[in-house]
Amino acid sequence: MAQRSRSPQHPDEAPDDRAGLDRRTVLGYLLAAPTLAVGVWVGADALDGQVAEAAVPSLPQPEDLFDLGDLQNLAAAPTAGLISVQVHSDGTASFAVPRAEVGQGMTTAVAMMIAEEMDLPLDKVRVTLADARPELLMNQLTGGSNSMRSIYLPVRTAAAVARQQLVSTAAGLWDVPASELTTRDGVVTYRSERSASYGSLATAAAGTRTTPVSAQLKSASQFTVLGTPRGRVDALDIATGRKQFGMDLQVPDAKPTMVRRPPTINGTVVSVLNTNTVRNMPGITDVAVVSHGVAVRGATFGQCIDALRALEVTWGPGTVDGESDDTVLAKLKAAALPMVVPPLLTERVDAEFTFAFASNSPLEPDNAIADVRSDRAEIWSSLKVPIVAQREIATQLGLPAESVTVHVVEGGGSFGRHLFHDVAAEAAEISQKMGKPVKLSWSRTDSFRQGRTHPMCVSRVRATYALGNVLSYEQRHTSVQTDFGHGLGEMITATAAALPVAGNLSFAETIFELTQSSPYDFGVTTQLLNEVPLRFNTGSMRNIYSPNVVCAQELVVDRLAAKMGKDPVAFRRAFLKDDRLRAVLDKAAEAGGWGASLPPGVAQGIGLHAEYRGGVAALVEIDCRPETVNRKVKDGVTGPRVSKALMVVDAGFAINPRGLEAQMMGGLQDAMAMCLTSSLHIKDGIPLEGSWDNYFYTRQWNAPLDLRVIVMPPTTGKPSGAGELGVAPAFAAIACAYARATGTMPTSFPINHGALGFEPLPLEPSTPQSPTDGLDRAY
Amino acid sequence: MSSHTFKLNGRQITVEAEDDVRLLWVLRDLLGVTGPKHGCALGVCQACTSHINNRAFNPCSVPVSQIHPGDEITTIEGLPATVGKDLHPMQEAWLEHDVAQCGYCQPGQIMAAVAKVRQVAAEGREITDGDLDEIRNICRCGTYARIREAIKAGAKKM
């Protein structure tokens, strides 16, 4: 069977040892600076473009040849601008990474790359987040699980050149051959005779003008840091409460600010009746009408809540006022693209699955600090596309882009939310209108009701089979439009000519085609997206389309296996196109005890998915027995419990296996939430959910007691994406397990969406008052 | 505006605030103590979990006027001092198990864990999965498995 799909093996690029030393020679630039600074072009070296191989029974889908991360790499290739590693006199190295850290462990992985190539202890590497750097063009976008893939080579290159420069500086000072020097733990040593710390060499090694310098990267066999499990570099700061998130930053006079919002999505202000009264409330300094509400600024967030609740506002309509779950669903069903294979002649499986709206809101409420003056502005926020934020906020404020400084701060989660800078833009608008610095926080209720959503979608699948073969697989995915207006669209426009996607596909269709493909040899295979243009506030949520598309696919695969009398694992094995996926499937089946005898109401399920040049098999066990389903938890939902889960991941090369495990755990929890409990109920133009006791993300009582992650040994030698990789296969596995445990294939997700499990908070005022019974609940 | 006096992380302090301002804002916005995180201000997510007289509570849900001069408030910043060390055993367990992802919920998770372990110990029991199921703190990154492991490990050293 052909060995190619979206986790293709790259024998020619795998472990660099095979290709010899020349492949490891890299080029950087010694920069003019007081202490050693080395720059490299980011992007160009990171390209890992894929080449099509021989034909396979199923024609390759676009994503097989070229995926979203490749697109991002390609877009980044011709960009100007260097990223640089600096070595300081105290022996530390620092690097401002042009990406966002939101919990995915990117700063730890980058620190490991630098520690490895420099022979420097990990705790001597300081990784910070770069401000918006427009000269990097679109190579400052954190998304599509692309960060490790795109900066793995550039960062290592800069570190290797820095080490090389320290060595040659020491050799010059000591008048000995550089080839006889060794480096270890931040010290250069000549035999047993001389040694010098990097810190003591940092000034002498500095450049006075830009000079190209080459160096050798380590081979994988020399690694002592990369590929080994490491704790997060910020773990101590987190556990002691010292880590500063956007919400914790203290910027002079940036006082707490909140917004009273309309009772429907994107509504507008018609009039405010009591501005002066509210401005005179305790602690309040300012009240201002803004695009989608009325802003109040005060001494504490609590007083902002009091003030925004006291405002008397009349509202204009929003953008989806007439829409509810059922009206949206009817529009989706009407817009589905037709199947091509006629429903005649052969046996077939036809299925349709509905996925409710979901929220990508992280735990840290949306926030941004803005200090807008007449001639300049400064913004602090967790932003995954800071360049677009800088440009658009500058336009909005009427300032030149270079007068707007955008600081990227570490975020308390993102899950796609921070691709958008709407919160930072609103903070800038408020600061400009009030003429004062503001620290804007959306309320929790705002984040659920007016924040970004993963749109409702319907996936139809038709598969035909005969004589032990699957002859066709068609999937028609219909979704409320996903807003990609955060920079990805620009990358696509800029690189359109290089894409293997023909015609005038929309941004969304292009991203769909670049991320979706069936891993099975199912004959004629087509997967198409159609979008319904409704103006909800949508956006990418972790793993975008894949959780829904793959869940639908794997449920149908299980049904095909049943109809054809095959075991689900054996059936997948027989039809898989990709050896790497087959390997993770085999490992999961073996290590997870596939086929174990379980009591009625408990069942196993398996799900497979490859994306971002990596692959995962998830094997879960779900408990649907009444005593589990009907557990009572105050203000919470219980339902079926995923009692056991195993995630087997092939990440090409796991930079930090411990961090990768964490991403798999998180992906599994997201999958449990999307499959079983978490959704938004849209009613009359707004979600009913307003708190974490309405939006049922998983809690401890939902979490599996037995969770294992197996990281496969390196396959390609190159890191795949990891942050989103686990969601889709786990979602599929849970859905398949549920179908087997209950004997009924679920067709609407999450499975408890039909019953509203809470009393909705009022729509007005838009933010509820904080409780006062905290002491009664102390334990 | 009135004066409110209480013990915060071992120090007797006085702060001026309106009576109904919730303690979370007094800590964060007026005193600059940002270890207790603002996650919902609804007493739901538990990211602000701190201790009052050694019991876990949510400062977002307590007006400052309910705090009395004899009350002892401990936030994550003051947790190590309660055992006279640089780190509380629960914090050490957190590092050992590399629990955190984004980290936003973790100060609250640690404070909740310490209180839960004390509660169970007071009942003369070892901590069980049933006890851990009762912890309501949300981790939107989903690192619940490592939280459970760390609590069990931390409990043994408390």
TrEMBL record, chain A:
<dbReference type="InterPro" id="IPR000674">
    <property type="entry name" value="Ald_Oxase/Xan_DH_a/b"/>
</dbReference>
<dbReference type="InterPro" id="IPR037165">
    <property type="entry name" value="AldOxase/xan_DH_Mopterin-bd_sf"/>
</dbReference>
<dbReference type="InterPro" id="IPR046867">
    <property type="entry name" value="AldOxase/xan_DH_MoCoBD2"/>
</dbReference>
<feature type="region of interest" description="Disordered">
    <location>
        <begin position="1"/>
        <end position="20"/>
    </location>
</feature>
<dbReference type="InterPro" id="IPR008274">
    <property type="entry name" value="AldOxase/xan_DH_MoCoBD1"/>
</dbReference>
<dbReference type="InterPro" id="IPR052516">
    <property type="entry name" value="N-heterocyclic_Hydroxylase"/>
</dbReference>
<feature type="compositionally biased region" description="Basic and acidic residues">
    <location>
        <begin position="9"/>
        <end position="20"/>
    </location>
</feature>
<feature type="region of interest" description="Disordered">
    <location>
        <begin position="760"/>
        <end position="779"/>
    </location>
</feature>
<dbReference type="Pfam" id="PF02738">
    <property type="entry name" value="MoCoBD_1"/>
</dbReference>
<protein>
    <submittedName>
        <fullName>Xanthine dehydrogenase family protein molybdopterin-binding subunit</fullName>
    </submittedName>
</protein>
<dbReference type="Pfam" id="PF20256">
    <property type="entry name" value="MoCoBD_2"/>
</dbReference>
<dbReference type="InterPro" id="IPR012368">
    <property type="entry name" value="OxRdtase_Mopterin-bd_su_IorB"/>
</dbReference>
<feature type="domain" description="Aldehyde oxidase/xanthine dehydrogenase a/b hammerhead">
    <location>
        <begin position="240"/>
        <end position="319"/>
    </location>
</feature>
<dbReference type="GO" id="GO:0016491">
    <property type="term" value="F:oxidoreductase activity"/>
</dbReference>
UniProtKB/TrEMBL annotation, chain B:
<dbReference type="GO" id="GO:0046872">
    <property type="term" value="F:metal ion binding"/>
</dbReference>
<dbReference type="Pfam" id="PF01799">
    <property type="entry name" value="Fer2_2"/>
</dbReference>
<dbReference type="InterPro" id="IPR002888">
    <property type="entry name" value="2Fe-2S-bd"/>
</dbReference>
<dbReference type="GO" id="GO:0016903">
    <property type="term" value="F:oxidoreductase activity, acting on the aldehyde or oxo group of donors"/>
</dbReference>
<dbReference type="Pfam" id="PF00111">
    <property type="entry name" value="Fer2"/>
</dbReference>
<dbReference type="InterPro" id="IPR001041">
    <property type="entry name" value="2Fe-2S_ferredoxin-type"/>
</dbReference>
<dbReference type="InterPro" id="IPR052914">
    <property type="entry name" value="Aldehyde_Oxdr_Iron-Sulfur"/>
</dbReference>
<protein>
    <submittedName>
        <fullName>(2Fe-2S)-binding protein</fullName>
    </submittedName>
</protein>
<dbReference type="InterPro" id="IPR012675">
    <property type="entry name" value="Beta-grasp_dom_sf"/>
</dbReference>
<dbReference type="InterPro" id="IPR036010">
    <property type="entry name" value="2Fe-2S_ferredoxin-like_sf"/>
</dbReference>
<dbReference type="GO" id="GO:0051537">
    <property type="term" value="F:2 iron, 2 sulfur cluster binding"/>
</dbReference>
<dbReference type="InterPro" id="IPR036884">
    <property type="entry name" value="2Fe-2S-bd_dom_sf"/>
</dbReference>
<feature type="domain" description="2Fe-2S ferredoxin-type">
    <location>
        <begin position="2"/>
        <end position="79"/>
    </location>
</feature>
